[in-house]
Specification:
Chain B: This is Fe-S cluster assembly protein SufB. Chain B: Pfam families: SUFBD_core, SufBD_N. The complex is a heterodimer. By secondary structure, chain A is α/β, with parallel strands linked by helices. Chain A has 11 helices and 20 strands. In chain A, a hairpin with a 2-residue loop joins strand 2 and strand 3. In chain A, helix 2 runs antiparallel to helix 8, helix 9 packs across helix 10 and helix 10 runs antiparallel to helix 11. The model of chain A has no long low-confidence stretch (mean pLDDT 94). The two termini of chain B are 21 Å apart. Chain B is globular, with a radius of gyration of 22 Å. In chain B, helix 3 runs antiparallel to helix 10. By secondary structure, chain B is α/β, with parallel strands linked by helices. In chain B, strands 5, 6, 8, 9, 11, 12, 14, 16, 17, 19, 21 and 23 form a 12-stranded mixed sheet that branches. The chains are: A alpha/beta, B alpha/beta. At the A-B interface, strand 19 and strand 20 of A face strand 23 and strand 24 of B.
């Protein structure tokens, strides 16, 4: 079916959206239909747009070739988990709750009884639509990632199959992270999932979202939309670990809305996939809001990473600090585009932004655009960006202590990237990421 | 320190650049840009056929390119392009003796202090009024050494081979919409040639003056610095204030041959309704150094990014830029360095001040091509905001393809520190004086690189701009 509208294909079209809506409440069906209209009305992003300057979709993504991922319910049978999924889960330490998705369908969910009895909700998004519409309807694809945000946001809002809903009531503090593991196995398909996290006033929660897959022969698309909302004084840590196989096109659109005096920290670790595009927009909406935004990427072969971030200071006296670091080997390539926007009236803003890149090979490439737009005069803002090679002095020092070159290089790279993780020392995450990087360093 | 002391010793007239002269010209084209206008300009100049072809091709390129959507707001300019005069000839011939310059033009430049400056410190002076160079002179000792400092038209006429070899090679017509426009309608500007090994100790200088309302000035400057030579060129621009927009879109091409050293200094102080869109670029060869010193005050919108293409091993590029945006002004300035050879180094230091509803944007590119082993670049931006309605942006593009390179960018934004203000005011200074002093301290690293007269002028201009900045 050719319609002439960019991005409408044999698998991705209005009929598919209608099929997804079957059995859903009226409001959701209408929301999907609206999102689809927005999708149709928007052109496919191209490199003439600043935000897509370094990622040429015509070269990297062939929507026409994709089918829509099947999302049939499966029995929860851990013994049938593919090895990569089983290993990933086995590495996880204690958790407040778990949720596992295979090929876009939730196969497992559990939450500690004591937390459930305090009103914490962790469940598949589809189920939450039915059981907690009063919590889901106001926030889903409205406040944080509405379809109007862009072509991919609209596509996800129209076609999401399932996802995660986490709700933490006022004053409830979780002492262990919520862990979500997503696995994609079906090749040549497109998967759309969504996450909605609402943390009420003074609550506290950490959330680790990991996505893994095997390598694919045919291009496979994993699209994620993540909406995180913190109310006054809440504290939330959102961590995303992307360790997909080659052949994957990973696309994630994240937005965090930080209320008064809340803390909303994020960590994006990008290690896998052939192409990985993460859009993270942090809005600091209440005075005293605070956001640490961390990112880490390590590329090998011809991997392509594109991180696009923004720090929107809309209220006075808020603070944000972004640190993205990446190492690039072989022919891999990374682009970072970050912007700090201090809106009118957001006085006493403290905002920082740093992107550092390490090129490990002759053929790697790093592009960096750390931008500032400042419309208030009583602010402290700075940004920095560097691209360089391994520190020779450091290497020499280690080698003079008897380390072989390869090992010395590994240590320096781990030390370089380790700075990011040391700022968010979440149980198990640091070890997991370190192991994954070491594995890549060994090639 | 009372305020009159701050100003003492700076004998610049407050209203120096605001005056305008009665419009006088011997020829001008119809308003708007067309093939007819381009042909008329070429005919007026009695150009060789290849130049007419070059202009017409550039016009085609200009027409095929969309208006840039990044940078400042060009919508008003777009609407008024049809009303702008693309060529105004103020007199029939260029003078080599100051006494022969027509009185009205002479008076203008005398008010700007040009004859005095020439006598005192300069090796040569060019003065452009509207579209044409009206005066050019070069001290004899330099002429004897083979230095050429001419209007661009005379450069084409008198040195055709040299001219054709370099013209349009550093900034091709197709580089951007405004370089295409300039290539189609260029008029005036300088042609400079510094022979091998000649070290010019005192600067060459050009002044550009737009007097007529709704006038576009499209000067074109071509500078060739031969091996091991050394020179400094200074450019100053002014225009009176009119109620309708004026337009300046120059192209400056510089070739710095191996081992040469060249510095280009611009202090632009256009009137507040001038669109100032300039392409200035240097091609820097082996172990040569290019320095841009770029000061932008005035104009409604400036889009200007002096650039160094480091194409020879060990080439060095240095860009120092300062922007001052007052009410209703947008300075979209910065710098561009392209490392295309091994062991090339560069540095960009940019300082901006935004006052009232002024907006300063730094836009820069640092590009290191694969193979530019050992490239090093450092970019530093500092923005100072004076009022809560001021705005500043920083858009640095960093594109690195070579592992064995080292590239850094840092930027900070701050307001004038309350503690600094308090300290100075507690010593008896008014808030306005204190603010002016802090601002001067902020731009000092750049001002001290300027020849004395320019540093004084820059400070004075900043002081004038700062008046009334404290509510």
């Amino acid at each position: 079916m050719t319609t002439g509208i960019e991005g409408v294909t044999e698998a991705i079209n209005r009929a598919a959206v209608e099929a997804r809506s079957e059995g859903e409440p009226q409001w959701l069906a209408e929301r999907r239909a609206h999102a689809w209209s927005v999708y149709e009305s928007l052109p496919m992003p191209n490199t003439r747009l600043e935000e897509w300057r370094y990622t040429d979709l015509r070269r990297h993504l062939d929507l026409d070739a994709l089918k829509l991922g099947s999302v049939e319910a499966r029995p929860d049978d851990p013994s049938s988990y593919p090895a990569v999924l089983a290993d990933t889960i086995a590495e996880d330490r204690e958790a407040a709750g778990h949720l596992v998705l295979m090929d876009g369908a939730v196969v497992h969910v559990d939450i500690r009884d004591d937390l459930a009895s305090l009103g914490v909700v962790l469940m598949p998004l589809r189920q939450a639509v039915r059981e907690h519409p009063e919590l889901v309807e106001p926030h889903l694809a409205t406040e944080a990632v509405p379809p109007e945000e862009g072509k991919f946001a609209a596509l996800n809002a129209a076609l999401w199959s399932d996802g995660v809903f986490l709700y933490v009531p006022r004053g409830v503090r979780l002492d262990a992270p919520v862990r979500v593991t997503r696995w994609i196995g079906e090749e040549g398909a497109a998967f759309f999932s969504r996450t909605l996290i609402v943390a009420e006033a003074t609550s506290q929660v950490s959330y680790v979202d990991e996505i893994v897959s095997s390598d694919f022969e045919a291009q496979t698309l994993a699209s994620a939309a993540v909406e995180v909302i913190t109310r006054n004084g809440a504290q939330v840590q959102y961590v995303s670990l992307q360790r997909m196989g080659r052949g994957a096109f990973y696309q994630s659109q994240q937005r965090t809305l930080a209320g008064r005096d809340s803390t909303l920290d994020t960590l994006n670790v990008s290690l896998g996939a052939s192409v990985s595009r993460v859009d993270l927009n942090a809005r600091l909406m209440g005075p005293g809001a605070n956001s640490d935004m961390l990112g880490l990427y390590f590329g090998a072969d011809d991997q392509h990473f594109d991180h696009n971030t923004s720090q929107d200071h809309e209220a006075p006296a808020a603070r944000s600090d972004l640190l993205y670091k990446g190492a690039l080997d072989d022919h891999s390539r990374a682009a970072f585009r970050g912007i700090i926007r201090v809106h009118k009236g957001a006085q006493q803003t403290d905002a920082y932004q740093t992107n550092r890149n390490l090129l490990l090979s002759e053929h790697a490439r790093a592009d960096s655009l750390p931008n500032l737009e400042i419309e208030a005069d009583d602010v402290k803002c700075s940004h920095g960006s560097t691209v360089g090679q391994l520190d020779d002095d450091l290497l020499f020092y280690l080698m003079s202590r008897g380390l072989p070159r390869a090992k010395a290089e590994r240590l320096v790279v781990l030390g370089f990237l380790g700075e990011v993780m040391s700022r968010l020392p979440l149980g198990g995450v640091v070890e997991k990421v370190t192991r994954a990087i070491e594995q890549k360093l060994r090639g | 320190m009372p305020q009159n002391e701050v100003i003492q010793g700076l004998d610049l007239d407050v209203d120096k650049y605001g005056f305008s002269d009665e419009e006088q010209h011997v020829f001008r084209t119809q308003p708007g840009l067309s093939e007819e206008v381009v042909r008329q300009i070429s005919a007026q100049k009695g150009e060789p056929e290849w130049m007419l072809e070059f202009r017409l091709e550039a016009l085609r390129i200009y027409e095929s390119k969309p208006m840039p959507t990044w940078g400042g707001d060009l919508s008003t300019l777009e609407e008024t392009l049809d009303e702008i005069y693309f060529y105004v000839r103020p007199q029939d011939r260029m003078e080599r003796s100051w006494d022969d310059v027509p009185d009205n033009i002479k008076t203008t430049f005398e008010k700007l202090g040009i004859p005095e400056a020439e006598q005192k410190v300069l090796a040569g002076v060019g003065a452009q009024y509207e579209s044409e160079m009206v005066y050019h002179s070069l001290k004899k000792e330099w002429e004897d050494k083979g230095v050429i400092f001419d209007s661009i038209e005379d450069g084409l006429k008198n040195h055709p081979e040299l001219f054709r070899k370099y013209f349009g090679t550093v900034v091709p017509s197709a580089d951007n919409k405004f370089s295409a426009m300039n290539s189609a309608v260029w008029s005036g500007g300088s042609f400079v040639y510094i022979p091998k090994g000649v070290q010019l100790e005192t600067p060459l200088q050009a002044y550009f003056r737009v007097n007529q309302e709704r006038m576009g000035q499209f000067e074109r400057t071509l500078i060739i610095v031969e091996e091991g030579a050394r020179a400094h060129y200074i450019e100053g621009c002014t225009a009176p204030t009119y109620s309708t927009e004026s337009f300046h879109s120059g192209v400056i091409e510089i070739v710095v041959n191996p081992g040469a050293h060249f510095r280009y200094t611009t202090i632009q102080n256009w009137s507040n309704n001038m669109y100032n869109l300039v392409t200035q670029r240097a091609l820097v060869h082996e172990h040569a150094t290019m320095e841009w010193l770029d000061g932008n005050l005035g104009s409604k919108l400036t889009m200007k990014y002096p650039s160094c293409y480091l194409v020879g091993e060990g080439a060095h590029g240095n860009i120092l830029s300062i922007a001052y945006s007052g009410d209703g002004q947008h300075q979209d300035t910065g710098g561009k360095v392209v490392h295309a050879a091994p062991h090339t180094t560069s540095s960009i230091v940019s300082k901006s001040i935004s006052k009232g509803t002024g907006r300063s944007s730094y836009r820069g590119l640092c590009k290191v091509y694969d193979g530019a082993v050992g490239a090093k670049s450092n970019v530093e931006c500092d923005a100072l905001l004076i009022n809560e309605t001021s705005r500043t942006d920083t858009y640095p593009y960093i594109e690195i393809e070579e592992k064995r390179s080292n590239i850094g960018h840092e930027a900070t934004v701050s307001k004038v520190g309350d503690e600094q203000l308090f300290y100075l005011m507690s010593r008896g200074m008014s808030e306005e004086e204190a603010m002016a002093l802090i601002v001067r301290g902020f731009i000092e690293p750049i001002a001290k690189q300027l020849p004395l007269e320019y540093a004084v002028e820059l400070n004075r201009l900043i002081e004038l701009e700062m008046e009334g900045s404290v509510g």
